[in-house]
Predict the structure.
Amino acid sequence: MTYSFRDDYSEGCHPEILAALSDANLVQQDPYGDDEFSAAARELICARLGQTSAVHFVASGTMANLLIISSVLKPFEAVISVQGGHIAEHEAGAIERAGHKVIIAPGEHGKLRPEDIRNAVAENTMPPHMARPKLVYISNATETGLAYRKSELKALRVACDTLGLWLMMDGARLGAAMVSKASDLTWPDLAKLTDIFWIGGTKAGALLGEAIVFNKGELAEDFAFHIKQRGAMISKGRVLGLQFKTLFEKDLFDSGALHAHAQAKILSDAMIAAGYKLSCPTETNQLFPILPLALVEKLERDFAFHRWGAVGTDHMEIRLVTSWATDPDQVARFVSALG
Amino acid sequence: MTYSFRDDYSEGCHPEILAALSDANLVQQDPYGDDEFSAAARELICARLGQTSAVHFVASGTMANLLIISSVLKPFEAVISVQGGHIAEHEAGAIERAGHKVIIAPGEHGKLRPEDIRNAVAENTMPPHMARPKLVYISNATETGLAYRKSELKALRVACDTLGLWLMMDGARLGAAMVSKASDLTWPDLAKLTDIFWIGGTKAGALLGEAIVFNKGELAEDFAFHIKQRGAMISKGRVLGLQFKTLFEKDLFDSGALHAHAQAKILSDAMIAAGYKLSCPTETNQLFPILPLALVEKLERDFAFHRWGAVGTDHMEIRLVTSWATDPDQVARFVSALG
Amino acid sequence: MTYSFRDDYSEGCHPEILAALSDANLVQQDPYGDDEFSAAARELICARLGQTSAVHFVASGTMANLLIISSVLKPFEAVISVQGGHIAEHEAGAIERAGHKVIIAPGEHGKLRPEDIRNAVAENTMPPHMARPKLVYISNATETGLAYRKSELKALRVACDTLGLWLMMDGARLGAAMVSKASDLTWPDLAKLTDIFWIGGTKAGALLGEAIVFNKGELAEDFAFHIKQRGAMISKGRVLGLQFKTLFEKDLFDSGALHAHAQAKILSDAMIAAGYKLSCPTETNQLFPILPLALVEKLERDFAFHRWGAVGTDHMEIRLVTSWATDPDQVARFVSALG
Amino acid sequence: MTYSFRDDYSEGCHPEILAALSDANLVQQDPYGDDEFSAAARELICARLGQTSAVHFVASGTMANLLIISSVLKPFEAVISVQGGHIAEHEAGAIERAGHKVIIAPGEHGKLRPEDIRNAVAENTMPPHMARPKLVYISNATETGLAYRKSELKALRVACDTLGLWLMMDGARLGAAMVSKASDLTWPDLAKLTDIFWIGGTKAGALLGEAIVFNKGELAEDFAFHIKQRGAMISKGRVLGLQFKTLFEKDLFDSGALHAHAQAKILSDAMIAAGYKLSCPTETNQLFPILPLALVEKLERDFAFHRWGAVGTDHMEIRLVTSWATDPDQVARFVSALG
């Protein structure tokens, strides 16, 4: 049977989450996020950050992005994203449908740099004929699987402060980024260096759910209205809260990411050992090896993964993704198939 | 401890759903609704309807409403709702934010009548100065807990056909409506008499999830784009599909609703026996008794419920809601407290 | 030939405006409202108000309404309008397309009362499930041709202040309202009692153009972005500015309205003298007589006007509108035709 | 006194337009575009095209663009524009506020090429995760002052047909493009090769006004609703219609453009004669010479124009624009100042 390395959302959830849902199942709770489990999850998140931030739970990453962006921006304000950013390319124009221009900056290997921000602002200053850049969007880990360093994030923060911009971080794969050995970034850094970030629950082993964290309280004002109006308010908010409570209480969030990394490292090391190149260093749970087309076709008989793009006429960059659920036996099987 | 009759979403889900989630947990599935469980759930729903309709799953009722309405209407088209309809009063202006006018019709006891539709259209025909009515929105059960009869729905259908309107049904409490002894409406009737309806999973015992059913295939064209663009696409779509599969495969959908009705009937009968009036007959899982204020205050010491509105100076209409999870012992305790 | 009393925009403009356009035609000016004529027009308007307000010119009344409403409201905030208000019934859902709910209040004869505001707020306070009322919209003159008194406007102001609402006035027919003998309202009152109002140029004898006046400067912040983004920025802004300059410099604004009133009074007096009822007293340039259907049909052979609604089986309420351009000979002809 | 070559909208309008407004001033007309002048203007435009197209008049170019784009596209559909296109850079995010993604293609010297279209589509095909490209936007003349040849437009048409896209042309400076000696494109070609285009009246010598032309009638269906709902319906639609009638009846549209070209050619030839380079050949009424900074500063003492961008450390590209109103004496004065 084919085993999939296509993404980090092919399975259900950490079994402990199912256990927690089961334990709490018939306990009555207030709806719409006012339940005890959501409150406990908020506390656990704030404890990690070392400060009191406003935390809201929603069901999907695109929802998190569109809610954040459309609630903090005025209608004529724009968001800056690196080329290849999720909001720029893979959200079907959700940000634009919410009314906002996405200004694309080149970046480097999928990372945004301070000069990208400065250039984007410089090229968009002719009021009122140009939408006003006001928010910078980054992802951590990036779409290319890289993790921002503390120094990099600090530099983006300085650029934003200088230009009067807010900084938000899409954390669909934040778990993977935060345990990366390549990065020294800490959770209190996230609180200090970003204005808003969100914590991906889905890819970290929840059934569904993302936690939006406003480090500047005034940006969260009236946010519940936006949640409701966008159709994102879940009546049994307990379902989201309880999952985050379980992820952070039991340290599943980190341990799952570490498992994913370990499996990605095995795959990555095997690629290098076999003499294949990677288009990016493997810093989190994604790797992008460039393989002979014949090998790709052979591997596809037993494994599912994305073809990322042709390299020359006879090579192909592919993407492999691991997760909290990746089966080490299948990783070993994949490694053997390489040989 | 206080027991809540405030709503039908205070608990988690049918234990069989948790069991199903557990059984399937590590089986890899394709994302975004392309999983086997969603496919099976679609088949079960279509089997009930006796026809092939297009079925999509989303996480909340407001999302179902805004997605349906904003995908089938052109920007200048309006939706007609009875006064008190969920889209008219309890969705924070979600439909308007999506760009559409909601035309309010008076109705009767929360039910829309054919003459409401005809009047609303007659009062909104001055193109291009008035938004063009194009869609009729009803809820079944209504916000007042009533169930539409087949003859009523047929009459609405005729009015819609005569005027070139589509008819959609909000089924947040469709389970409660379909098992109501007050109504002779069948599932194949739903398919024939509405253009679009949705099946409430959350209130029927799912953790979350609503199934949108397009009976006219052309209305569903490109719907996945709308889902994605509105932030409603769940990467682990399996979570929604598997719950609906379980609800319909095991008949939980009906049996849960029947349990809720039975409990509501006990409460309703007790009210009448004790000499209290109901503002509406009890046809589903909601009842609206009018009680002396002193009794309301006494009941509130042990039970949670909504005060619906003052009646005179010393009476209060309250709302009691039962569900698949309502504890018969608590119902009995409530009945004793009445005496 | 048929003479039209259908509206106050069947002719071009005050000849003095054409003369002014001609005089200034080849004088180069900065675009986008930064011209000297617009500056002069702003000064003339502020002089009338006795205070410095922010003034912007746009081309249509619906544009003025949608720009004001969508710039001062947050996405989840709603506007309260009387039933029959222009934004409620005759703007094709423009406010909703801009994302905002219009809450309809009953009012009396087309006028909004303080209790309408209080009730609308009371019925819309369940955050975040209901859009939050934040702005009150009135028209002066009303759609029924009435002029607000100072005491009425003060009472609305008090209600708004008590409830934390802004008050805006649609002044499509402000000229007609301000010269009405029925009202004691002054221009400085407009500045003090409303947060925003707009001055209808089109119906007052301009080719086109409405002046939006923000009495609270902070509400006008970044307004030019909204103008540009909504497609309302006219490159030759001079065309709007010069017309308002001419209207207010030469007192055409008032004299035109006085002419319209005088003609409406002749028509109104003739109706009363002939024994016909009016559905509203004639306070401005509109009258709403109730005439026998046979007479209506006879009049329609020579005159154009709107049938407003059947009264019983053999009478019809009609609307007659006069303007700065109404020909007194045609008024006399109409009066004779009555006899 | 400073003379401005900054743009083609610094003056009022062709004197013949003022004369026509004056002649028709007191003739009563139906409102909202249903007047005889608008009808006559539509006929004159269709006569030029050699076919019956649907024609609507609006007050500004940004309005024309946003109305066209938001009326023909579904919410999840995107428009392709060349980098530097007006909708991409100078409309304050109007298209995005209307809900649509603008996909930027590189182009060449401001012109879009067939390969730009093919690449943009190829890079945006992952339904439903990417907005679907459906419309191609070009400007003629381009922002760089170039005029599309018939062969170029045909090639774009073929690319659009192959990919199932619509093609629209922003004609803010269509007059300048159509009389350009550099291009062989005819008005019937416009009708055949584009699905929608608009004719700039403002820059061609009207006070304001642009004519939107739908060559495929089905795309214009219900367009009046969009006009009304976007605040673009002018009650005295006669003002727009009469100006276009005058422009085309008296051939002012072409003669004004020819005058502008002649003046631009004098300026352009003088630049070349003086040994300065142009960044683009001068094909219409804009030229982009690269001048020594010292000369630019000297010229700015007597003339207004835009600095377009530094070239090296001591040169500057500037933009000069001529129009129907450009004074030949000032052109001569500018040429002398060069020497």
Observations:
- The longest helix of chain C spans residues 252-273.
- The mean pLDDT of chain C is 97.
- DSSP finds 14 helices and 14 strands in chain C.
- Chain C touches chain A through 18 residues (CB under 8 Å).
